[in-house]
Design a protein that fits this description.
By secondary structure, this protein is mainly α. It contains ten helices and no strands.
Length: 196
């Protein structure tokens, strides 16, 4: 039981690492919570800090999810890997290291998928960039990728109910965290990217 609790706690703490805050303050003396959308996620890092730091934050957020998902296996904890992944996503959204105000868990959720089912990760990556190329909305592309991932699971992983449940939960997280973006998209006031 102690190993299980330790695994889940570590997963949450890893998810709580505020990548955007660390990169912004360490290398640019900028607190991204005071700029743009005031969000700690990768999209605001791109918007506030630029492409290179945005990529760094994205990779860090993805790897948080992957690392957390692998923890139970590394520690020998008798729990499903995806449970630790969900704790990492929660940690990203409500980080103890940043006053419980984090990002929207898109990259971290993708990292969870990478740690558990790499091919599904590649699939959602392709869907995300196709949607982004067409729409130019990062938020919309993230939600489309989430729905596409859930659909993929129903088609190719119908026997893996933990994966279906976790992808469904992460999809709900992502939609809930993007509710303001959804309103802006409907009002045509959501910022579009210009680099793709």
């Amino acid at each position: 039981m102690l190993i299980i609790i330790l695994s889940l706690l570590l997963a949450y703490l890893i998810g709580s690492i505020p990548s955007g805050l660390i990169i912004g303050k360490t290398f640019y003396k900028v607190d991204i919570r005071e700029h743009g959308s005031k969000n700690l996620g990768a999209t605001n890092a791109f918007r506030t800090l630029g492409i290179k730091p945005g990529i760094a934050v994205t990779l860090m957020d993805i790897l948080k999810g992957t690392a957390a998902t692998l923890i139970p296996g590394l520690l020998g904890a008798d729990i499903h890997l995806l449970l630790a992944g969900v704790l990492a996503a929660i940690g990203h959204m409500f980080p103890i290291f940043a006053s419980f105000k984090g990002g929207k868990a898109v990259a971290t959720s993708a990292g969870v998928v990478l740690g558990y089912e790499p091919f599904l990760f590649l699939f959602l990556l392709v869907v995300f960039f196709i949607a982004l190329y067409i729409s130019k909305y990062v938020s919309l592309s993230s939600m489309i990728a989430a729905v596409a991932s859930l659909t993929y699971c129903f088609i190719f992983h119908l026997d893996d109910w933990p994966l279906i449940v976790v992808i469904a939960v992460l999809t709900i997280f992502i939609f809930y965290r993007h509710r303001a973006n959804i309103k802006r998209i409907m009002n045509k006031t959501e910022p579009k990217i210009k680099w793709l």
